[in-house]
Amino acid sequence: MEHKRYLFLLLLLFFSQKIVPQQLPDERLHKIFAEGVSAMANGDYEKSLNSFQILSSEYNNLPLGKIMLAANEIFYSYDYQVPYNEKKILRLLEEAEEHSNRLLKNERKNKWNRYYLSLAEGYKTLYEGLTKDWLNMISDGISCISNYNSILEIDPAFYEAYIAIGAFKFWRSENIKYLQWLPFINDEREEGIRLLKLSVNQNSYHDFLGMDVLFWINMRRGETEKARMIAEESLRKYPDNRLFKMNLARYYETTDRRKAIRLYEEVLNAYERNKPLNRINEVTIKTKIAISYFELGEVKKVVEITQPILKIKDFSKHESLSLAGRLERLSKLNTDAKAAVSKK
Q1: Residue 210 falls within a domain, yes or no?
Q2: Number of helices (H), then strands (E), in the chain
Q3: 3-state DSSP call for residue 272?
Q4: How far apart are CA 334 and CA 273, in angstroms?
Q5: Residue 102 within a domain
Q6: Is residue 109 in some structural domain?
Q7: Which of 91, 25, 92 has its CA nearest to residue 52?
Q8: pLDDT per residue over 300-341, tens digit each?
């Protein structure tokens, strides 16, 4: 799941354009939107769905409601690891794109009309990345960045543009760093981080996305204490965000395995409280717990955790595809733990 999560966060921050430090022009529109996004950030998808349905019905002259209904579907499916409702997601986003383009024909210099188009393209790009539709992802992503640049031509202080551009600068430089000896290749990673921080510090609607990506950038660079501070600040602001709690657990895997275990167990309990525990999440998180116990030398607990999972024979096709690599790792962990137990 971690590589999917990494891709998810990269694409989401690189292309998603709903991070608006500027307040939407209508006060009620702003309130409904902000409440819905905050609920979604905390994993309360029923509450966010209600907000976005109101947004869609009361402001049907704008495409924002349809965009956020699609966003809610994507976040929900990713969080709970259930199959995406592809037809619904693409229909909502394509209708939103058409609506945005109609608005732009009438007011090409309206930054919010351009923003709606960027947002729709961004979520479409995110979905295409998660479903490995690479060619369409690249095409829609390029269009999305182009629209961001158009917004900056209208309003240079539209900070949500900087979060996309900052992520782009960092990840592009990170992925081609082996070519930076060439005179026309610049290392823009530090500039990318600066722009990301600038956007996050504007108290934007979706600052939680910026926090999340900055966490993983710091973990990737080995700056773990910076990552910890970001994870803790994220949880202070969004205490029910399960992925943020997993971020903090990931940090503690490097410093305190018992704290990591406690945090992962809290995430498992949170999933159980909100919905019957999904087996993909269960296997993923229990694997992380088992690895920490193995590193602590408590191999009997590793066997206790892994053995029941390995006995499951009725995984669905979706679960089997998602867990293939994880189950192989779990099996090896189980074998190694049993071998260690037999030596004691």
Answers
A1: no
A2: 16, 0
A3: helix
A4: 28
A5: yes
A6: yes
A7: 92
A8: 999 999 999 999 989 999 999 999 889 999 999 999 999 988
